[in-house]
Every structure is written in structure tokens, then in C-alpha cells.
Amino acid sequence: MKNSRRISSQILCIVIIAFLLFFLFTTSIISYQYRKNTSELITLSSQHSVQQLNEGFITFYQQLIYIMVQLSSDSTIKSYLEETPEDTFCYYQMQRYVNTYLQSYNGFFSYSNVNIILYGKNNCTYTTYNETVALEDTGIIDEDFMQKVQKNPKRMGIDYYHRGITRETRDKYYTFTACSLFDPYSQSPYGYILIAIDESCFSSLYFNLRQDDNRFSVMTHDGLILSDSDPRQIGRTDRELLDISGSKTAGIAVDYQDKKYIPVSAENAFFDVRIVQLTDYSTITSKVFSNTLIVVCITGLILAAALLFLVFAVRRITRPIQNLTMAMYNIDWDRASKRPAAVNCGGCLEAEQLGAAFDKMFLELDTYLDNLAREQNARRLAEQNALQSQINPHFIYNTLASIKYLSAAGRSQDVISGITALIDILRKTIGDTRETIPLEEECALLESYFKIQQLRYGNGIRLMLQISEDCRNFLVPKLFLQPLAENAIFHGFTDNNPLGDISIYAAKMEDTLIIEVIDNGQGIPSHILATILSDDAALIRNKGFTGIGVKNVNDRIKLIYGAAYGLHIASLEGYGTQITIKLPLIEPGTTHCI
């Protein structure tokens, strides 16, 4: 015998292949899981950073609101914005007072690049700048955001990336917020508060959150970048980054500017801006590679040691079997007067017992297999006939009960129609000895049965068939859909006046015919659903739920096609039941072997 065909060689080959596959599978799973966990950790960290930054913006906004409220409640400020100064000296005195007063609010911020401007209806301007500003000459009063504030005094206006309004700041860009100083007694504004916010105010909020592998960006909803950890991006309109921040891609690597990043974003409703953090994806891959390499090496060493042990164990265990095989192989059966009662090959006890039993087993094997095959075929046929005989009387009983109901109601024409439909069903079932029929014929039988039920219950119950054209000719067990529809009618819907839909779908999935029977009835209680297809189904019948229909169909299918096929039931009380039937694809003229 060739060495490659020895049981030890084959086992070792299978073991080695299994170990290699296991090694590849394990390393790929470890690598994937580690990358996933690392990505999730970085995403969670980024989300925490963005949330912290968003809270910083909220705090900053609340500080601005506090300043506006304090200024609007100051009576001295109100008088300075309403009354016209008597002379220049008086105006300078007012300027000095207000400037000092406004400077005191800079202590609210950890940065100083916030300038406050007050503009009164007396056309006087007071600022925290070191230079005098004639606000009406800057044109900012006519800007859209200021016009909105003037039209709606209770609203705060924001203008992004606006040039500075003084000589020293005209080459820089600021975010301006404005609100009206409103007199509740006269119901009119007596001035305006204008706050100029430098970009450094925003960047200081995420300064401590910055790292080498991440980037923060604050942008408007039209893509204008107001602040960025990369100063070169400030003032640009980046639609690509806007789309990335607006999509649901948190934790998923995306391509941006020829690199991969993990984006996390948040909306700040107060400033009406979007906060974005991009984390370099190469950070994850670099961490994953080094750690995965260590895990792979350790796993490889463990598997190699286990493989060596298995090689030794397999050879030790299979050596007696190999000796037994060689002893049997070298027997000259043509010249031997009789087969030996035992083959003495030594080795393990099992090998000795196998040699002793070989001759007797060989002599009786053929007879035993023939008898077993005949017995199984006879038993299978008897069980199928028994199951079919259960279905037919049960079906006829329920159908005659429906016709009896019609007769009692005096609906003679419906009785005639029902009996006609019943005769048609009986002719195609009892008079037809075929075990299986095309799915199209089975559907026709179901429609005839449904006509009888609709005569009794009216159009409250509806049958909808959605059968793919390529599935109509496949063979199915005869009269297997009717018990399922019957259970849906009598147990899924109300007893006196059933209302509901029964939908049947059929389609091919690879080499399997999948049929679904779906109703929108009362559903099956969980304690019944758990045992409806088991051998304990008889207990359910004693509690008022018939076990013939569903379990019988399942048993018939398994007897005809094998244990791989049958029913699967999913149900939710109050919503309905879905029965999925799995059958082999068998065309007329072909057979199926279990």
C-alpha cells in the first residue's frame, strides 16, 4: 500500500491542513478584532473629545449671553447709549468709563481676543479696542445679520469670517455676534451689542485635545472653515469635509485628501456650526500590525507544539490499525479454505477485537443490509400512509363542518358551491395516488379549499399567492399547504368572524425551494410554539390546539425528503405567524434520495 493512503498519513494530512486553516482563521480573526477594537476605542476617544469641545463651545456661548444680559441691565450704560454727550470732554469721560467697564468682562474668558462693542441710538460707540471706532462708518450696521437683529430685537445674529472693523484688525477675520439692547418700557431698542470673536478663541477650546494624529475643524453648514488645527485651512470652503462630517461614518475609515481618516462630528446649535475631528487611520494600522505580529508568533508557536504532539499521538494510536490492515490485506482469500475467526495483529484492544469480529461481520453484513433496507422502506411507506390518512379525515371533517354551517344558515347555493369544491378536492387527493404533485396543482387545491371557507366566513379571510414562475413545476407533498392554512383560519383568527390575510410565497434559493406561509392572526402562544413540532405536541391538542396540521406536515416532509427539510415556525402573539417550509428542488420525472 502506498504510504499516502495510510490512515495515519491521511489523519496527519487532515490535521495539518486543519491546523493551517485554524492558524489562518485565528490570525485573521485576531487581526480583524484587534483592528476593530482599536478603531472603536479611537472612535470613542474622538467622540469624547468632540463632545468635550462641543461643551466648551456651549460654555463660551453662555458666557457671551451672560455678558449681553449684564450689559442690557446696566442703567448707566443705557443712559450713555441714549443721551447725547454735552461736549467732547464729557464724551471722553463716558468712553473711559465704558471701556473700563467692558474690559472687566474679559476676565470671563481664558483668552483675550474677544472685543465688545456698544452702539447706541445716540450714534455713540464704546469698545474694548485701544482705538476709537465710528461704527456707522464701517458699514457693519447695514450687514444682513445686523438687519435681522434690528428687525427682531429678541434675536441674536451671527456673521462668520467677517473682516475686522478697526485699522489694526481690518486684515484679520472674526466671527461677529450681535443683539439688541431693548427697553421693555418703550418697547424699542436703545442700542446694540456687537462682539468680535477671534479665531484663536475657537482654537483655544481644542488646544489641549490636539495630537499628532488628529485634526480639529470648526465649519459652517456651507463648508466655510472658521477654525482648524491646520491654520492653512482657515477661510477655505471644503465641501468634501462637509459631506464627510454630515454622513453617518463615525468609526468607519473614509478617504479624504489622499489619506484615510476616521471622522467624528457634532452639531453645535448655539453657534450653528459643525465640529469635526479627523483621526489618521494609519495610527490604527501601525498599532495593529505590531501587536498582531506578536500574537501571530505566539499562536504559531503554540499550534506548532500542539501539531508535533498530535503527530506523535496519531502515529501511536493508528499503528495497530495499520498492522491490522496489512494483516487483512495479505490474506489470500481465494486459497484460504475459510476466513480466519480472528486476525492477530497485536496492538490495542480495539484492534484485536476488530480482527476477531471481522470474519463474522463480513459474512452477515450483506444479509443484514438487505433486510434493513427492506424494513426501512416498508416502515417509511407505512408511516407516510398513516400520516396521509390522518390529514384526509381531519381535512374532510373540517370542510364538512364548514358546509354544515352553510346549510344551517340556509345558504343552499353556497352549499352546492362548497360541495362542488369539496368533490374537486377529493378527486384530486383521494383519487390521485401520487405522493407528490407540482406546486401549481397544490396551490389550486388550496384555492378550492379556500373557496369553501370563504363561503362560510365571507371575504374576511383572504388568500394571496406569490409563486415565482420558475417554481410552479417543482414537486411538493400533496395537500401539505391546506393544513397550514386551516390552522391559520381556525386558530390564528377569531372563531366567529375570522378576519385576516394568509400570504404564500415561493422562491428558489440555490438548490432549495423555500415556501413561506404568513398570516396576520393572533399568533401562537410561546409555550405552544416551543413544543408544536416536538413529540410532546399531543399535549397541546388536549389544551384546544390541534397538533395534526402543523406537526403532521413537518413529519411528512422529513419522511419523504429527510431530516434536512421541514418547517420552521416564527410567531408573535398579537401580530401573526410565519411558517417557512424548506423543500428540495425536484422536477417531474426525477427522484430524491434521502
Automatic annotation (TrEMBL):
Keywords: Kinase, Membrane, Transferase, Transmembrane, Transmembrane helix, Two-component regulatory system. InterPro entries: Bact_2-comp_sensor_kinase, HATPase_C_sf, HATPase_dom, Sig_transdc_His_kin-like_C, Sig_transdc_His_kin_internal. The keyword Thylakoid does not apply. Residues 475-587 form the Histidine kinase/HSP90-like ATPase domain. It comes from the Bacteria. It catalyses: ATP + protein L-histidine = ADP + protein N-phospho-L-histidine. GO terms for molecular function: kinase activity. The chain crosses the membrane at residues 12-34, 293-314. The keyword Transferase applies. It holds the Pfam family His_kinase. Its EC number is 2.7.13.3. PANTHER family: SENSOR HISTIDINE KINASE YPDA (PTHR34220). This is histidine kinase. It comes from Blautia caccae.
